[in-house]
Design brief:
Blueprint (H helix, E strand, L loop, with lengths): L1 H39 L18 H35 L1 H27 L3
Helix pairs in contact: 1-2
């Protein structure tokens, strides 16, 4: 009985490790869409013929997607690229790493060239 309880407890903990992050992500997305929809309230810009403000469903989702895309661009250009450049400079200063890095980079370029050639022509 003790082994069964321990096994059930482990399954419960593993299930929680999956369900809680997924639930939190869904909640945060819902919260972000609702908050941005209320904060921006772009429906004030559009008024129909009777003078009522037009509510546009899905505008909050569109705003969240645009904000996430802008953040992705900023993170890529402001954070990721400088870190990659710093590592490239750091590896170039160390003799053995510089050699291995240059060999790996040439090998990668040759594979990319081969892949592009296959994609363009459809043959190897």
């Amino acid at each position: 009985m003790n082994r069964l309880a321990r096994a059930l407890f482990r399954y419960f903990v593993k299930g929680m490790l999956v369900v809680v992050p997924v639930g939190a992500a869904i909640f945060l997305m819902y919260w972000a869409v609702a908050s941005i929809d209320k904060a921006l309230n772009l429906s004030d810009l559009w008024v129909d013929k009777t003078g009522k403000h037009m509510y546009i469903p899905g505008l909050g989702i569109l705003n969240v997607v645009v904000v996430i895309m802008i953040m992705g661009v900023l993170v890529t250009n402001v954070i990721t690229e400088p870190i990659k450049a710093w590592f490239k400079r750091w590896f170039a200063r160390l003799p053995i790493f510089a050699f291995l890095y240059s060999v790996d980079k040439r090998f990668d370029r040759s594979l990319c060239w081969r892949r592009e050639k296959v994609q363009r022509t459809g043959t190897g």
